[in-house]
Amino acid sequence: MTVRNLVLVGFMGTGKSTIGKKLAERLHWRFIDADAAIEANQGSSITEIFRLQGEAYFRKVESQVLAGVLTGACQVVATGGGAVLAQENRDCMLANSFVVGLKASAEAIIDRVSQDTNRPLLQGNLEERVHTLLESRKTAYDFAHVTIDTTALTVEQIVEEIVGRMS
Length: 167
Ligand code: S3P
Hints:
With 167 residues, this protein is of the alpha/beta class. The protein is built from 8 helices and 5 strands; from the N terminus they run βαβαααβαβααβα. It has a 5-stranded parallel sheet. Helix 1 packs across helix 8 (155-166), helix 2 packs across helix 4 and helix 3 packs across helix 4. It starts with a strand and ends with a helix. The relative contact order is 0.22. Bound molecules: shikimate-3-phosphate. Shikimate-3-phosphate is lined by residues 12, 16, 35, 46, 80-82, 119-121. It is found in: Cytoplasm. Pathway: Metabolic intermediate biosynthesis; chorismate biosynthesis; chorismate from D-erythrose 4-phosphate and phosphoenolpyruvate: step 5/7.
């Protein structure tokens, strides 16, 4: 496989966007946030897409946008936490990218996502929603080439760890 892109996968709040931006700077690659690309494609926010068209529609657009993005090269792509659920997306990522899974403790995730209350899948009791979704996605990120626990590491440490694992 020729590695053309680096793709970050992981549950919400594991640090995909924060780390992806720093990683792109470090590699001198372009940073793409897949959720932002979906919003640009639809001219609408993730929240509004979920509210007006529903999750199934969002997942369809997510697959299309991701496939389009991954035709490019030298990009660090932060995916949405549910992008790994579709086999076609996993295949597409593995076809030409180095896939890095990020994970964190439930406590760290809850703490981080509580800063942004807009996520459609985390409405209601936050702790309960995180635990339920984490349980249902227990093995969803295991297909990644490497997995890094971000709970107790700094962004700089994580970036260097990923760069080291790439070579
Ligand atoms: C989702 C995660 C979100 C976003 C959407 C659905 C998920 O992205 O794609 O709300 O299913 O886990 P982040 O992981 O960037 O929050």
